[in-house]
Amino acid sequence: MKPCNVLVLPGWHGSGPTHWQSRWEQRHGYRRVEQHDWDRPLRGDWLARLEDLVLACDEAPVLVAHGLGCIQAAAWAATSRNAARVKAALLVAPLDVERDELRPQLPTWSPIALDALPFTSVVVAGADDPLCDPQRARMLAAAWSAQLVNQPAGQHLNADSGLGSWPEGHVLLQDLMKD
């Protein structure tokens, strides 16, 4: 699989230089789905941008989402006629945008799309994630028909959680990329 067909979907506020997604982009040549506004994300804009990049791929892409990017992938798959073009998705630390403290900050993102994803998917969730508790992560994985991988004592699985380049996560991605 060509690295340019691995689409990286950062979460709310983007992924900084020490985030595992940024490290994977630099090390492996994966392509970031850039957004016009990382701080005030509009669902429709983010879905349109993902649609454009999926259609630009010359083979079935694999999505690598984090946080709000997981919610973006699910919303896009529920509304796009092109979702079957995607080979697989690694959905890491989904952001529970339906939490009371997040709804006002991300008003266009509720409700979360709960349709089964039409591609192979793995949800990776931290056992101590303050932005998506384990019960919600299980519910999202089940709704999306995704395999759930629990990170014991893992928090939000971002740059602040000390993952570095997160080689264990990259092994999960490589498994999804296989034919």
Automatic annotation (TrEMBL):
Q: Which keywords, in A-to-Z order, does the entry hold? A: Hydrolase
Pfam families assigned: Ser_hydrolase
> Keyword Hydrolase, does the record have it?
yes
Keyword hit for DNA-binding = no
Top-level taxon in the UniProt lineage: Bacteria
GO molecular function per UniProt: hydrolase activity
**Under what name is this protein listed?**
Serine hydrolase family protein
Q: Which organism is it from?
A: Ramlibacter lithotrophicus
- Biological classification of the source: Bacteria, Pseudomonadati, Pseudomonadota, Betaproteobacteria, Burkholderiales
